Amino acid sequence: MNDAENKDVRALGLCSGGLDSILAALVLRQQGIDVTWVSFETPFFSADKARAASQSTGIPLKVQRITDVYLPMLRDPACGYGKHMNPCMDCHTLMFRLAGERMRAEGFDFLFSGEVLGQRPMSQTKTSLRYVEKHSGFEGYILRPLSARRLPVTIPEAKGLVDRDRLLDLSGRSRKPQIALADHFGVSDYPAPAGGCLLTDVNYSRRLKDLFDHQEQVGEADLELLKYGRHFRLNAHTKIVVGRTKDENQKIIEHHDPADHVLLKLKAYPGPTVLIARCAPDVLTAKAAAICAGYTKAPLDREAEVLVQRAPQRETIRVRPLSPDKVNHLLI
Ligand code: SF4
Question: Closest Cα to atom 6, ligand 1: which residue?
Fold first, then answer.
């Protein structure tokens, strides 16, 4: 088989933007296969690295926001969570399912990814790769060019669309073969492996679990807000977000929804922006205002004035500041 024979073969690859994604695509492109990437986004992970990889390699990229389909899976992943709230097996399965639907709809011949057998202890064993493939609904259509010769023959290989002899047999955790391959392809500009998924972050995961435990309907803004500030749970129905820096205050303002949230700010001293649900009872809004004041230089033995923005109205309430050590136990 030569490159010219492959010119009509089209492959759609899942792209994380890391070196392995790039190499997998280049190994196929070397055979003359027309490669395109897809990358998925949610509030937990972005496609920015994939965008950069697409820019540097010229491989076209499609980005798809998948929060709506991701959340039901994340609430109850069939294979459970990893160390934190990361449902890696089901996450991969979902991504391959969505990529597979796109493959069918847009006339691609097969899917591929940069996964390397045995590189990650849990999600890249033979059994895991097999599980993902089987449950994605696209069994036989997922090619892993970097480890292909260690894995069963896929449909595109069997059909002669891909030359198996020109695929690789990498396995294990060593990065040396990939670095050598990167040299071979002249790839020097690639991000550090792994990282970037908030579902593997201990603090984010704790807040997310709290959110799932207390709130039936969860939207993008709720998930964005988990990234910023200190979070305090005042009762089963009410939590507040307290900005720690000017930037966080700004983010809280950006992601708040005036229809759902009230913002609090101390009048006389600089300090946090605090967010609380609009439906919270007055007594809890007052407590939130007291916590807000406690994170400023306002004297603890005097009442402070807190501005309550309940759009379109604004009012001022007076509260006695609550010092942080009195509310530490409420921190999520
Ligand atoms: S680390 Fe995050 S993005 Fe990656 S597979 Fe796991 S859950 Fe999905």
Answer: 88
Identify the bridge partners of residue 313 per DSSP, sorted by sequence position. Answer: 310
3-state SS string over 161-176? Answer: CCCHHHCCCCECCCCH
Ligand 1 pocket: which of 200, 201, 205, 208 to mutate (most atoms within 8 A of CB):
200
Ligand 1: residues with CB < 6 A are: 45, 86-88, 91-92, 197, 199-200
Within a 10 A sphere around the Cβ of 244, how many other Cβ atoms?
Answer: 12
State the pLDDT at residue 3.
46
Write out the DSSP string of 210-244. Answer: HHHHH-SS--HHHHHHTTSSEEEEEETTEEEEE--
Q: Among the atoms of ligand 1, which is closest to the Cα of residue 91?
A: 8
Q: Closest residue (by CA) to atom 5 of ligand 1?
A: 88
CA 42–ligand 1 middle distance (angstroms): 11
For residue 70, give both structure tokens. 């991701």
DSSP letters, 239-306, are EEEE--SHHHHHHHHHH--TTTEEEEEESSS----EEEETTS-HHHHHHHHHHHHHTSS--TTS-EEE
What Cα–Cα distance (Å) separates residue 158 from each residue in 21, 33, 131, 164, 200?
Answer: 23, 16, 21, 9, 37
Ligand 1 centroid to residue 175 C-alpha, Å: 20
Q: Closest Cα partner for 41 from 20, 21, 69, 13?
A: 69
In tens, the pLDDT along 256-304 reads 999 999 999 999 999 999 999 999 999 999 999 999 999 999 999 999 9
Q: Is 0.90 surpassed by the pTM of this model? A: yes
Q: Which residues of the chain have pLDDT under 70?
A: 1-7, 193-195
